[in-house]
Each structure stands twice: as C-alpha cells, then as structure tokens.
Amino acid sequence: MFIGHIPAGYITTKAVFQILPRGYTEKIHLKYALFWGMLGSIFPDLDMFYFYFIDNSRHLHHGYWTHLPFYYLCIFFLLFSISFAFRKHSLKIYLTVFSMNIFIHLFLDTIAGKIRWLYPFSSHDFVFFNVPARHHWWVWNFVFHWTFLFEIILTAIALFLIIRDIRRSNKTVIMTRADIC
Ligand SMILES: [Zn+2]
User: Which keywords, in A-to-Z order, does the entry hold (predicted)?
Assistant: First the structure.
C-alpha cells in the first residue's frame, strides 16, 4: 500500500475517539491522538530508509522485523505492561491508537503485499491478491492494479472527514461570534 496508510490512520484514530466513552477522551487531545495514530499508520514503512540507504534494496522490506507482527506483539505487550504501572490514562490511549494503527498497516499491506503473520512459527507469506509484474517500475504494478482502489477509497473517506470537520469548526466560530455580537 502506498497512499492509503496515513488516511487509514486518520480514519481509525477518529473512529476510536468517537467510540470511546466521553470519560476516556475528555482529558486527551485529539491532535496528539491523531499524531500517534498517523505515526503508527506509517511506522512499519520507515524501514524504507534502511531498505534504500543501508540494505541497498537487497531484501524485500516486508521481510524486515518492522513488517513482522510477532515483534510488535512482544513490544506492545511489554509497553502495555509498563503503562499499567503508571496511572497515566492518556499514555494508554496514545499507545492503543499507535499499536492499533501498526496492525492496521500490516493488515492493509496484506491486501497486495506479503506479510508473515505466523512468524516465527511459519515463514509463509500471507497475501490476499497477488499483483502480477507487468511494468518496468515495480510501483506501477501496484498503482495500476485494481486493489489500488482501496487506497483511493481510504483517501476519499479521510478527505471527506477533514472537510466535514473544517466546515463544522467554521460553523462553530460563526455561531460563537454571533453569540458575542
Ligand atoms: Zn508497509
């Protein structure tokens, strides 16, 4: 997946904020939750720096630990355990949206990429739809494949939510000004 991860992170984090009871969210800033959520949504792909600049594209980046669910399970188990020692409520929420978005990233990568969901017990690459290599530049294989529609839909939903929120906040400003006048 290329352009769909950040929109997916935005949609998921907003949805979590809607679902959580008000008592949970009132002490938490949405902008910080969105930051952690969207960072989680692209975090596994930060391995592209390693892929291009250190590994010289020798291995598929989905084979690095950053794309293996097992390591995230271990890391988050540890982090959640530590977070319970602190009574910081916001810490748990930010950690939840961050970790949730990492797993959504891996799920979305499974649509047309390959993810080893059962590693270290199995090295089987799970993929929903195999994308044939038809173009010289590998990126075009994914962009011109029908599965790219998922990315377009995610981007469209995120844009819709952003525009709706901007309109709502503009309305609130106008109403507040009208109250003052
Ligand atoms: Zn990825």
Answer: Hydrolase, Membrane, Transmembrane, Transmembrane helix
